[in-house]
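Lab meeting tomorrow. Please check the following:
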Amino acid sequence: MPPSSSASSLSGVAAEGAPLRRESSASSAGAPLHGRVSSRGERLLESGLLGCALVSVFTTVGIVVVLALESFEFFRVVSPWALLGDVQWTPLFAEKHFGIWPLVSGTFLTAAIAMAVALPLGLLAAIYLSEFSPARLRRWLKPALEMLAGIPTIVYGYFALVFVTPALQAVVPGLSGFNSLGAGFVLGVMLIPMISSLSEDALFAVPHSLREGAYALGAARLPTILRVVLPSAGSGIAASVILAGSRAVGETMIVAIAAGQQPRLTLDPRVPVETMTAYVVQVSMGDTPSGTLEYRTIFVVGAALFLMTFAMNASSHWFKRRFHRAA
């Protein structure tokens, strides 16, 4: 081949390869740009998610600060021993007493009645859904049961006042029109979906190998459920019970409508009582001037309620973490 032809062919190859090199260099230059855009978008998304998470944190901090400041102003006038050592609660009367125990007893009496209703019914419903219910029935029965949690609590309150209490008065002698029995019963019905749903998830997460091992040892179905499945899901069930109890303690509208507004230290479910949340509603919707000692009592009651529910929620979270580690 003549030297001129070989040179021309090499120049042609070089000419043909030049666009390829330009395209490859352009693509290599575009890759970092795309990476920069992608990383910038990820940082914006991460910042947005962090901001959403911090909203709840700052809200909790703000609530704690407000409760602490107002409670401090209250305790500048009233001794903490007067709050814990007295058994009468009459801050709105001429003769003032600041013993918080009547409100605490009314709260826990109503919550105890509610848990006595919700715990067996919710746990039995969870056992049926997890161990006995066919898959087709479970698909619509569980959402139907969880619909009870979507009913407004004020509807539950008026249902307890105009239907449940008159029905109970026909069988319970001496039952007042406002009482903790009817309010606690309806509150327990409202808590059934919470216990049943969370407990059913805990039971459903128990490995089938444990059930098969019990069957292989000759155990029947019911003893397997009671002695193998339930203990294995104990942490999850305990978390659901504590969470439901915290919800019962913090409930407002049902007890404000159906339980009454008479703070008294009693364990009789037939008489009117007042819970901590009902007292907060009573004062905040009344004519009590802002900044007065009577008005600051709602922050003291709110702080006590916050501490109780925080302790219960922390216990529920601990049980839930233990359940996940075991699973």
